Amino acid sequence: MKRIIYLLALLSAASAHADDAAISRLMGLGMPGGLASQVDANYYLGTLETVAGAGTTVADAAALSATTNVHRITGANGTVGWKFVTATPINSVQILLNTTAGVAKIYGESGSTVNGGSADAAFSALTGIKPIICVKTAALTYICA
Predict the structure, then answer these.
(1) C-alpha distances out from residue 138 to 23, 79, 130, Å
(2) In whole angstroms, what is the distance from residue 112 CA to residue 84 CA?
(3) What tens-digit pLDDT sequence spans the chain (145 residues)?
């Protein structure tokens, strides 16, 4: 959790955007109040979407919204997958909450690499119900753990 807070702090905007409720939520996670008020909480703590896995390649995997960064993924079974879309912001931290005990296959948008692998290859998250953290570090480049 401390690493996520640290990543949010690094990526926060210079001007204040968070409302009082968002500041309180960040402070509840351990972030100092002064720093919490600098985070654009509506983006970084965006609404949670739920997306069922689909397809077996980047072409037909289930698309994750670019307008939120918290995604509950369901149906992981080592075959179906999820993909980020081109509109996913560079330097954004994406949190995928795997709610199924199976392996989750994560793709970047078409033509991208994940963890330095081949273009359009999936990152296979270890089996288990857990969060997966991904960062879009550049156009067509993702790092996931």
Answers:
(1) 29, 27, 25
(2) 10
(3) 555 554 455 444 333 344 677 677 777 767 777 777 766 544 455 578 999 999 999 999 999 999 888 999 999 999 999 999 999 999 999 999 998 889 999 999 999 999 999 999 999 998 888 889 999 999 999 999 9
